[in-house]
Design goal:
By secondary structure, this protein is mainly α. The protein has one domain: ABC transporter involved in vitamin B12 uptake, BtuC (Orthogonal Bundle), CATH 1.10.3470. 76% of the residues lie in helices and 3% in strands. It has 15 helices and 4 strands. The strands form 2 sheets. The protein has a two-stranded antiparallel ribbon. A two-stranded antiparallel ribbon has the order 2-3. A hairpin with a 2-residue loop joins strand 2 and strand 3. The radius of gyration is 19 Å and the shape is globular.
Length: 313
């Protein structure tokens, strides 16, 4: 019984649970397995999936970032505004990516150097960055002048939309970074025991700054894709994204206590979040209930994290 419990609470158990749930949904929900719906499902989780790649590193190092939703909206705005002003999409994208990395680096610097709690720091940044997005746009959506900007989200390769390819590439890249590089091993070491990692020669301060800078950079990628998909820069976009991303990561086995993470689990967590919302849409369930479901998923994710921590002792 104990061995079965450990399997079910591990990464393999999560994949099995996901496979069973996917099979049940496929058999009971009309039109779920159609090509159009599956592609729509994958597109709907692109923003969560992209941001989850680096939120995984934040959580694995005993930190988290509540400012990701605001950063996604802000960098999307910056990409559109900079592209319109310079007349160059490439320049707009570069400025947006740098802006996102800067926001993340500021978060990491304050948390690591001033030893301020990540909750307070990123909660403050969430408000500041959202406010900047509203100030820059005067509280209104900003239209895209160059139709070429739309192609970032509308273009396809082998029949699959480009944002899905981007998400898949980032899953692979950050999975490799976590499992096959010193950076990933140091991240897990910091999450396991920051003081022991420091004594082992890991520059904990520098690592935390780099992790948050990466978080901001990837938020900018998600912001650019989102702005292209909704065909404008929206200062109120991605509201509540942080909770969905954290839920997906924790549901996927990333420990809130740090030191444990797996990209396969995060992918499954992201897909569970997307399928839950997709099924409700197919069944014509009112959008209000989606808030309840997201909250329940977050509670379940925290409960599973607690059970995993207890089982690993």
């Amino acid at each position: 019984m104990n061995s079965l419990k450990k399997i079910l609470l591990g990464d393999q158990g999560l994949v099995v649970i996901f496979a069973v749930a996917f099979a049940i949904v496929s058999l009971t929900v009309p039109n779920f397995l159609t090509e159009r719906n599956i592609l729509g499902l994958l597109q709907s989780v692109v923003t969560i999936g992209i941001v989850a790649c680096t939120m995984m590193f934040c959580l694995a190092s005993r930190d988290f970032d509540l400012s990701v939703g605001s950063t996604v909206a802000f960098t999307g705005m910056i990409a559109v505004i900079a592209s319109n002003m310079t007349g160059s999409i490439v320049m707009g994208l570069i400025i947006a990516l740098l802006s996102g990395a800067l926001v993340g680096a500021v978060n990491g610097f304050v948390i690591a150097c001033f030893r301020i709690n990540a909750l307070i720091t990123t909660l403050a940044t969430m408000q500041i960055v959202r406010g900047l997005a509203l100030i820059v746009s005067d509280g209104r959506a900003v239209g895209i002048n160059d139709p070429g900007f739309y192609q970032l989200a509308l273009s396809r390769f082998l029949g699959i939309p480009t944002p899905i390819w981007v998400m898949g590439a980032l899953f692979i890249a950050f999975g490799f970074l976590l499992n096959r590089t010193v950076f990933g091993k140091n991240t897990l070491a910091i999450g396991g025991n920051p003081e022991a990692a420091r004594l082992a020669g890991v520059n904990v301060v520098s690592m935390r700054i780099w992790i948050f800078a990466l978080q901001g950079l990837i938020c900018a990628v998600a912001g650019i894709m989102l702005a292209s998909r909704i065909t404008s820069g929206q200062p109120n976009a991605a509201t509540g994204l942080e909770l969905s991303v954290i839920s997906a990561c924790v549901l996927g086995g990333v420990s809130l206590a740090g030191g444990r993470a797996a990209m396969t689990g995060v992918i499954v967590g992201v897909m569970i979040m997307g399928i839950a919302e997709n099924v409700m849409n197919l069944l014509n369930i009112q959008a209000f209930y989606q808030y309840v479901v997201r909250g329940l998923i977050l509670l379940i994710a925290v409960l599973l994290d607690n059970l995993r921590s207890t089982a690993s002792r």
